[in-house]
Write a structure and sequence with these properties.
Helix content of chain B: 25-40%
CATH topology of the domain at 14-237 in chain B: Rossmann fold
Shape of chain B: globular
Oligomer: heterodimer
Distance between the termini of chain B: 29 Å
Strand content of chain B: 15-25%
Structural class of chain B: alpha/beta
Number of strands of chain A: 0
Helix content of chain A: over 70%
Largest sheet of chain B: 8 strands, mixed
Structural class of chain A: mainly alpha
Distance between the termini of chain A: 5 Å
Order of helices and strands of chain A: HHHHHHHHHHHHHH
Strand order of the largest sheet of chain B: 6-7-8-3-9-10-12-11
Largest sheet of chain A: none
Number of strands of chain B: 24
Radius of gyration of chain B: 27 Å
CATH architecture of the domain at 14-237 in chain B: 3-Layer(aba) Sandwich
Amino acid sequence: MIGFLARRLVNYVILCLVATFLAYLLASLTFDPVAILMQRNPPPPEAAIAAKRLALHFDQPIPLRFVHWLGGVVHGDFGRTVTDHNVGDELLPRMGVSLRLFLVGVTVGVILGVILGVVSAIRQYKISDYAATVFSFVILSTPVFVIGPLLKTGALQVNDWLGTEYLKFTGEQTPGFDGSWLASLGDRLRYLIVPTLTIALQQIAYYSRYQRSAMLDVLGSDFLRTASAKGLTRRRVLFKHGLRTALIPMATLFAFGFGLLIVGGTFTEHIFGWYGMGDWLIVGVNTQDANVVATVTLFVAVLVLISGWLSDVLYAALDPRVRV
Amino acid sequence: MTAAQTMFDEQAPSENGPVLRVSDLTVSFPSESGRVQAVRGLNYEVSAGEVLGIVGESGSGKSVSSLAVMGLLPQQARISGSIKFRDRELLGLSDDQLSKIRGKRISMVFQDPLSALTPVYTVGDQIAEALRAHGHSMSKQQAHNRAVELLDLVGIPNAANRAKAFPHEFSGGMRQRAVIAIAIANDPDLIIADEPTTALDVTVQAQVLEVLKTAQEVTGAGIVIITHDLGVVAGFADRLMVMYAGKAVETGQVDEIYAHPRMPYTLGLLGSIPRLDAEERQPLVPIEGQPPSLVDLPPGCPFAPRCPMVVDACREAEPPLSDVDGSEQHRAACIRANELIAEDPDAAEVFEVEAVEEAAIAKVPREQRPIVLSVNELVKHFPLTKGAVFKRRVGTVHAVDGVSFDIRAGETLGLVGESGCGKTTTLMEILGLDTLMGGDIAILGNLTTSLTKQSRREIRRDMQVVFQDPMASLDPRMPIGDVLAEPMQVHGYSKQKIASRIPELLDLVGLRAEHAERYPAEFSGGQRQRIGIARALALEPKLIVLDEPVSALDVSIQAGVINLLDELKAKLELAYLFVAHDLSVVRHIADRVAVMYLGKIVEIGEVDGVFGDAKHPYTQALLSAIPIPDPVAERSRERIILTGDLPSPANPPRGCRFHTRCFTFAALPEDKRQRCLDEEPVLAAHGDDQQAACHFPRARAVL
């Protein structure tokens, strides 16, 4: 089993490199940061443009540029942006912002989604099941740039009702906030609630549908009947035998869902003014910066592949049939 | 007696009277066309230590009524009447109250062992869970130890280790043993077994029935065994209840009912089973039509539309169960039971079955008939691979390992063996008409390897196939007429020819010409199998390959299809290759039989020879494992119980492949055994047309 997971890890490292190279290749082929420079008025001198080209290694073929960049990455150097800032300096804060936003949202979403799905399945064709179905499809079919502003409006209402501006939804903390460690945490939490809810709602809607059908498959199975025939109470049958088995197909879904969410989170970050990785990708494209795009891609690739690897581990932990 | 058995208390003598008394039980379910009355007023009781068999076709309400006893019916079921367990009313109890009785006093064994255990927990844990659900004082360690004892009791070798295995590491037979271990864990008073052996091979079925007997002996429980197989209950049950359309139509002592059935349905059921011990070939008794829909049942006897003895009075009121033969023990629901008593007729007489005339070709001696199919030293191995991107070979499954036989015109060869013996692979190789891994196949004298594209197509015409599952083998979106026309279109028949051939084909298989417009969904299983046969006949083939053609059908329907095959063979002078696991069916329909074990033919020959005087120990064991629907004969048989399961074909035993399970081998003195271990036996002739591959063949009475 350990050997199997180790082999998978090696495969994933290779996949990461391939994904990043492809992103770098695509970005380098289409981006032309020098063109932006040339549009300046008055036009910069010829020598300055040549120097810029040299600084961006435009004299080298793209694969060589990639190797050069990758060599730096290994040593923690992610290259420089077109405006000559260090990419690595911006990486950590932005990673922190994204992870903080999405880890909490996904955790809440997964847990509530599973619970909602299970309840729907157990009470199939009851009012609660129909309500959950309607809720899920409404959320799933509403784009995040509609849900986000709607939730903002809702938060305004709550604030009105409370009489103070309790829920905040622009940025991640009050600028210039000064207070104890605990007070600072409280302040951050107030900024976190609405965006987290935006993410969690979508996750709940998504996972509850899958969990419902996985649970329904299991509910009709013979082994639940055997468990009931043993004399276990219905609750034990449903949770110990039913949910435990119905979680297996979800393992893959959880992991990959999380990895891909970060990319899809661009809008959420934008709506709530969080400067995370998704936002950075947009910035990178706007400034025609191959290094930034490659860095974001590498981050996402690593995240997806860590998630994939975790899902393998989780799957093996949940299902004895795949342990080899 | 093992140590495990001492844990069960002696049968409590103080508790007299029935363990279970079901009265006026009705169960109905909502459906789109109205409420389905699945059980309509059922009465029965079971005493301690007694075995009650409940027999009926699918949809007769036998499983539903026992799930009602366990309180395991879905919530939308509406139940009324009374279910009394030891004078305690079970109907109306809450789930919590019922769960104290379930598994402790009443337990259940289900049909499909492959899905009956939760895949994510070890077998030992699942047994221990049953113990701890009721014995709250039991520690984890105690429960585990007891689980190991129980596994040992139900015959799992090396129980202490196997308890740690997960269900997928157990074979079907072993899983059913584990389910039985769970059922007897708390020394119940009543065990309900719902088709406990239906999903298993015959040899494993014999083992599991043996375990159930042990289970009954140690627990002293009453047993309700539900089955559609009249053979299984003949030897096992004390009393029998025959169900039809949600009601009991005949009840009584097993011996009485088998000897003197007093309800035409029972009579038909008994006549419809092919018998392994049949001296001469008699046509089977098919019961025409199908069971009635249980939504809005018309008044009168529900069997009336299918009954050969029906009179006008039958359609007026539903006859109650009443005593027959002046005995309270034996009751039947038929107004003409008295006539059956007076005449005691044969099923074939009542159902007016005509004997099939023998084809002209069957009178020609076998040697003079042309060979239709010859298979010579056929080999098929499958690689076992590992890895996703870079596949590497880690082993070989020896699915078929040198199989030879031939089929002559107008002849049926039955190919039998347990699942995994290679019979389906053999069939697929024959149908494939492709390059072979080893050996050769010739159809009507043409070697498959030398075929051109054109001639391969011609040959396909002469060889057609009928599949096992009649539900899955017809395209649901094609009307029957198109289904039948398709092979003819492929082979370039003219439109007029096709149009005239379709009604002909439908008539041939006992369907009506107007059925051509309908879709498969409008037909019952038996009718669909007839359509499958008609499709195979469309091109007037010489050889039809039948892959388990009747195993998915109910017995009364099965009889009709077998009779049809018999009739077509005589009429059209067809040759059949009949693959089946049911030896009784093979005995009935085949002229010759080949028994396969782990990719080899171990015995082959004329049916009466092989079945009457089997030489190979495996054939003897197979035959011995098949229950005979005759309680007297069945009880007096000495059964050969094979130990263990089929070894993996990826790693077949050295020497004789059967030696690991062979009782002859086990009885041999040490010096003679070596031969079985070293030398693979080849087929050797015994008599005119019988060959067996055994170093020490011995005759043994098995029927």
